[in-house]
Amino acid sequence: MKMEGGAASPNFLGQSKAGYVLSNVAEVVERILTFVPTKNLFRIASVCRLWRNCARRVLRTQQRLTWLSASGSSIYDEHVLLRTMAEDLEKIYMLPQTALLMVDGENFSWPFSYRHKKARKCEYEVESDPVEKLRCILPSTCDVVGIVASGIVVTPSGLPSSPPEEHEDGEAGFSLLFPAMDGVTIRPFHFCKKSLSESSMEEAGLINNPYLKVVLMFDYETWKAGGGRFLKKLLKPLSQNNVLIVGGQVERAFSNNTTCCSLGSFGAVGLTFSGSKIQGASVLVDQGVSSPKAAEATIQRLKAANIPERNTMGFMFACVGRGHNSYNNQRNVEASAFRKIFSNIPLLGFFGNGEIGCDRIVKENFTLSETDADGLQHSFTTVMSLVHFG
């Protein structure tokens, strides 16, 4: 009576009134399939042509962001996010086209050997590389941008209104999953000194792109000789345009472009967001902010952007020198202030070694404050931002 994945067999469909409806009335089938996780949709699509067409239409309507997060030690000898993703990707209601992952550096042992005796191997027998396991867990067509940082900011998976958590230390991570969205173009990039050029920046949508609205950029090892010039080359054209740019300096990064740079060299990874539906704003919590009241007053200025809460993501990129160090040993101050002001927007981010961004509040004509490449780089600050995807 049942096929793999829980779909009814064609013989059963023809033996009852319900079967007749499910094999002939597309509106009913399509409505039912909206309650089916995406992975099962692909199984169901193989039953018959009607179900395949209905499944395709349902997939096109699933355009809301999804995030998976985890914290605390895993019972397996692998990072807690890997296990969470392996289990929870079975339950999501969208097909990831792009994934932004952030994990803590203390517990994500890459690019060194990583042993996990009890962990379930993926079908490609990945033995020791957590990056390769991530690629096995996600769809093969999904672009991956990964960040390893000193600390991680997560909102627990599920409700956007869940209290966000600042994990300045300990095991934590998240995966922000982007589906295909009408009116939104997302392009990943990964540059090092040998791959950065005007043509590669144009291909990533960073220059000569009139529809560019937001850039998430994460640099690594740029404290090394030549790294400062490299970063300025990236930031200069963006600082002169109406583009919201936020991010910071991280410990390591990885992407689908595994041949970009050699071990130990500097570079940058990120995502560009283009399209008429994109909105964004950011504020800079500077090093002089040292009380919960002052932090709340700074983050409150994001309200001036009038950004809708639906399908919006909050990002927090903080210096490792902030957190409890800035608030008389009180933890989770800035994340809690964000939740107090924005009750239904998830907040994700990291604690890093430098911050990229500035006060840029979107006006009706999308006019942003003016700055230069140096004015976008900070230390002992927090960049708090909102990005809306329509």
Automatic annotation (TrEMBL):
Tell me a GO biological process for this protein: regulation of skeletal muscle fiber development
Q: Name one Pfam family in it.
A: FIST_C
TM ranges: none
Annotated coiled-coil positions are none
Q: Which Gene3D superfamilies match?
A: 1.20.1280.50
Q: Which residues form the FIST C-domain domain?
A: 227-359
> Its domain of life?
Eukaryota
The protein's name is FIST C-domain domain-containing protein
